[in-house]
Amino acid sequence: MYIKEVASSLYPWDLADEGVETCVDNVVEHSLVNSVYLVGIMHKEKRPLTSLFYTHNPKRKFYLPEDSRIYYRMDEANFKNTPLKPLYSNRDFLNGTDWLDELTAYGRKKNLKTGAEISHTFFDCEVAKKEFPDVLQKNIHGGIIERHFCCNNDHVKEYMKAIFYDTVKNHDVDFIQTCMMLFATGEPVKAPWFMENDPENKVGALLGVLKGGCFCGHCRTKAMQMGYDWDAMIHELKGLEQLVYATAYHNLDAVMDNHVLMGSDLLETGLLLEFPALYQFLEFRAKSIQGLFREINAAIKSANPHVDFRYNNYLKYPELAGLDFAKVKDCLDSVRDSDYSEQTGAQDRFRRKRNTLLKIRRGIGYDKDLIAAFAPRPNATPELIRESIKILSTLGVDGLSLGHYDGATFELLDAVKQGMYEAGIVIRK
Fold first, then answer.
1. Most exposed of 33, 118, 287, 318 (fewest Cβ within 10 Å)?
2. What gap in Å lies between CA 249 and CA 231, rounded to an integer?
3. pLDDT of residue 196
């Protein structure tokens, strides 16, 4: 089987601590990587993510990044149409260096493909809550949804487009990737007796959207422009939300209907037939994401028509967040799927990884590149890495992607090379 790419992400603090050359040389030597990209805007989370301490960082045992800082230079003039402005690191060992240029310069010396990633969040949530609360998504009761920005807000769209345009215009990258959070999906509805015949609890996942977003005024305006009766739609959704959460709200008038619903074997189809507003809400959000991706893609191509726009899927059910791959396939050049089953022992024997990749392939077609991720992290084993790569070799993927170098052991990095050999995978030059 031939593939085009074996990619590895790198974080700015890894490059600062270990050295750009060391990081790149390690992934090239041990895992046959031919594509490196900087996570240039990173959300706030402990690194390494799945283990207590780093495995090969010589300067620190762990790291806590700032929220959504940019680690490379930006041209402020590109942000003139939005009050949201780039926020940079306040850490002395990171600020003052363009880490994207540092990585791409050495990557080119090694004849590697180069890229940048805009991670889950692209602006500091606490700053947004204090200074620009209007840009954050709102739940059905008007409350702020943390870390989720409304893509129907013009200031948010302009900021997003400026980030992508500026990155591509001013840096030597072949692709720009993002796993930015789309519409909030809420938490799946659960109850001890709920959908006992459905271990996946897909109806519960669908109903969780009622606690997601976005229900703000910008979405209302956009929906009405599209021809939706927003007020009637929200009225029906609020009634359903009161029914689903009747027990939590101590709503005795609806508690009996709640128990009957929770004890039934209703399918998602039946739910959507009974509550057409729920389908309309999902459809509206999918159209909104399609429009956003179309505008971002246009901004990227206007800066450099040869740069690949890649979405990094991290969702089990992306359609519940507004991401319909069939709708956005003409707005994307490639998709990476972030299934990291290896780090939890692949209890399902890679079922979700296989199903998700096939779902994405079905949506984007056979001409767009599909990149499959795997996790060479300490909770994985060399055997699992090799098994995962062997399964991926049967699914028609166009590339592999390590997630992530900062928590990997060299034993697991070596398993990547060995797994490719055993699976008969060849990197097409």
1. 287
2. 23
3. 56
Determine if residue 23 is left, alpha or beta; phi over 0 gives left, psi from -120 to 50 gives alpha, anything else beta. alpha
Other beta carbons less than 10 A from residue 224's beta carbon: 12
* CATH 3.20.20.80-classified regions of the chain: 2-185+294-427
CATH topology of domain 2-185+294-427: TIM Barrel (3.20.20)
Determine contact, residues 311/321, Cβ cutoff 8 Å: no
b or e along 179-216 (b: 16 or more beta carbons within 10 Å of the residue's beta carbon)? bbbbbbbbebbebeebbeeeeebbbbbbbbbbbbbbbb
Are 118 and 177 a contacting pair, CB within 8 Å?
yes
Span 303-357, pLDDT tens digits: 999 999 999 999 999 999 999 999 999 999 999 999 999 999 988 899 999 999 9
Q: Looking at the DSSP assignment, which residues form a beta bridge with residue 177? A: 117, 310
pLDDT in tens, 190-209: 766 565 556 678 888 999 99
Q: How far apart are CA 118 and CA 49, in angstroms?
A: 18
182, 202, 175: which is closest to 190 by C-alpha? 202
**DSSP letters of 203-217?**
HHHHHGGGGSS--SH
Mean pLDDT, to the nearest integer, of 267-279? 94
For residue 422 the two structure tokens come to 């055993």
| 316/314 Cα distance (integer angstroms) | 7
DSSP element (H, E) containing 400 = strand 399-402
Beta bridge partners of residue 36, listed in sequence order: 8, 114
Residues linked to residue 176 through DSSP beta bridges, in sequence order = 116, 309
Cα separation, 199 vs 218, in Å, equals 37
Q: What is the pTM of this model?
A: 0.94
